[in-house]
């Protein structure tokens, strides 16, 4: 479902953020992308969302060759993907309901459809009672859950997250990861970039490690898991 073949991404100025990366992420899988700051995690996610384009190699998502995708197709392609950010990027002057409704309004859904879907998404993240609140009135963990509701409201086949627990304490971080696991359990493919190794090691998912833009074969995490 997500396939990278010998992908290199070189930014203007010549820096190679990714070098010869090949990987497959299956439909319905949940994986972590880890590695130090600057390893290329965000670049990898930006290639999958088609914000960036590979310099060399192929990126294929849901059977579509992203390198060859025409500009006009990109907005439709992005509806297949939900994106969660570290700082959640909520609109502070809109209610929780309106923040979550945003992707549906962009997609031109009917008012009735929006009501039903936003409530379903808020219910899934446990925030149905907060729909009339403004983000400022919520805790950091709740704000991140609003960001997750917004990412899944379109029922994307793929959910991507870039350091989704970066601003949260360990307890809230675990809650947020468990929420991703729940969406994965009902069939969504989930890809999470995170350097929270302690948290990742306790979860039973594949870990892809990047180091200076390259895939690391056997992850250092295996030794963390096995207590070495
Ligand atoms: P990570 O998410 O693992 O911290 P990034 O993918 O953000 O890593 O960055 C990988 C490398 O690419 C870093 O060295 C970073 O400085 C560089 N980089 C990221 N974005 C750009 C850009 N727009 N232009 C130039 N270099 C970039
Ligand atoms: P539909 O009428 O499209 O089948 P449902 O009534 O089954 O919709 O579900 C409504 C809502 O479920 C979606 O609009 C969305 O908010 C939420 N949802 C989001 N992501 C998922 C997911 N991965 N699996 C199940 N439900 C999801």
TrEMBL record:
<comment type="similarity">
    <text>Belongs to the ABC transporter superfamily.</text>
</comment>
<dbReference type="InterPro" id="IPR015854">
    <property type="entry name" value="ABC_transpr_LolD-like"/>
</dbReference>
<protein>
    <recommendedName>
        <fullName>Cell division ATP-binding protein FtsE</fullName>
    </recommendedName>
</protein>
<comment type="function">
    <text>Part of the ABC transporter FtsEX involved in cellular division. Important for assembly or stability of the septal ring.</text>
</comment>
<dbReference type="InterPro" id="IPR003439">
    <property type="entry name" value="ABC_transporter-like_ATP-bd"/>
</dbReference>
<keyword id="KW-0131">Cell cycle</keyword>
<dbReference type="InterPro" id="IPR005286">
    <property type="entry name" value="Cell_div_FtsE"/>
</dbReference>
<keyword id="KW-0547">Nucleotide-binding</keyword>
<dbReference type="InterPro" id="IPR017871">
    <property type="entry name" value="ABC_transporter-like_CS"/>
</dbReference>
<dbReference type="GO" id="GO:0005524">
    <property type="term" value="F:ATP binding"/>
</dbReference>
<dbReference type="Pfam" id="PF00005">
    <property type="entry name" value="ABC_tran"/>
</dbReference>
<keyword id="KW-0132">Cell division</keyword>
<dbReference type="InterPro" id="IPR027417">
    <property type="entry name" value="P-loop_NTPase"/>
</dbReference>
<keyword id="KW-0472">Membrane</keyword>
<keyword id="KW-1003">Cell membrane</keyword>
<keyword id="KW-0067">ATP-binding</keyword>
<feature type="domain" description="ABC transporter">
    <location>
        <begin position="2"/>
        <end position="228"/>
    </location>
</feature>
<comment type="subunit">
    <text>Homodimer. Forms a membrane-associated complex with FtsX.</text>
</comment>
<dbReference type="GO" id="GO:0051301">
    <property type="term" value="P:cell division"/>
</dbReference>
<dbReference type="InterPro" id="IPR003593">
    <property type="entry name" value="AAA+_ATPase"/>
</dbReference>
